[in-house]
Design goal:
The complex is a heterodimer of chains A (98) and B (244).
Chain A lengths: L2 H7 L3 H4 L1 H11 L1 E5 H8 L3 H13 L3 E8 L2 E8 L1 H17 L1
Chain B lengths: L4 H25 L5 H22 L10 H29 L2 E3 L3 H27 L1 H5 L2 H23 L5 H17 L2 H7 L9 H34 L9
Helix pairs in contact in B: 2-3, 2-9, 4-6, 6-7, 6-9, 7-9, 8-9
Classes of the chains: A alpha+beta (98), B mainly alpha (244).
Amino acid sequence: MNLRTRKLAELDRVIHEPGRLMIVALLSAVEQADFLYLQHETEMNKGTLSSHLSKLEDAGYIEVTKTYRGKIPQTLLRLTAEGRQAFQQYRRRMKEAL
Amino acid sequence: MERGPGMQEHEEVTAMDQVERMMQRPKLYNNIDGVGELGMGFMLLCFALLQWISNLSPAGSVWHRYGSFVWFMVMFAVIHYGSKAIKKHITYPRTGFVEYRRQKTRGWLAFTLGGVTAVAIWGLALVVRSHSELSGSHWGITTPAALVGLVFVVFYAYWIARPVRWKWAVVAALAICSVAIAMLPADVVGAVAGSTSAAATLDERSSGASLLTFAFYGAILLLSGGISFVLYLRHTQPASETAE
């Protein structure tokens, strides 16, 4: 196994999936955003987006807060310190591997 | 067809480019509804109107004392609360809410850049005033105003027009506007500031040049922001209230 392949094998699989990578990249640039914003930017349907968010939440990479905007339910999402660190590490490893 | 290592590497490079682009999208989202430009255009038009009123009013009038202060307060309140209201009632229900990260370094960078620009403009004005051959020359007044305008155009092109193709027409309009103001005859520029003589004074010409720059830039930005806002409303719908 050469160095490049080894670096690629070390990549965080939770983040490496394209859908989750988009979500994490978007959240890394903001303090927090809501579900609707992520849906608008990623163009995923609600089910797919929810599934990815659950996986990221299980990994401890995002924090989900359920709240209300007036009478309308709102789901706020924020990258945790652990998630931010994992994403930075992912980008570093990816750049090293390429 | 079997994928070679070169092709896989190319795909990963493209994916990383997309990640970098994705990270830029929240910044661009801030002006998705044109509110940033509407605010900027409104502010510049207010500057132009205030300058015009100040030029026309007598020396001891309210506009030369606390009138300007009240004007600025009202203007900033309209921009601040107006933008907030549009975001809250139109943008967030349609395309979502974003809270940006507060970066101390970015604040300092903007502050430093603003300071350096202000000092450069002030220095330029001093140079023009201290050299009689420059202050006597019409180009000595209108060229600095055009240069300041062109610096603004560069910032606009980088922060706002870069991802939206039709906004490059706005960049061109702003740049042409700067050059056109620089080429206007001295008596026309002076007349804008209220001068009635053909040989307008230095202050009248500099006031006229900045008034014209504010007015045209404000109008162009207001129009561009308005078009963005209409397009945004046309292409988006309020989200349904189903479970997330």
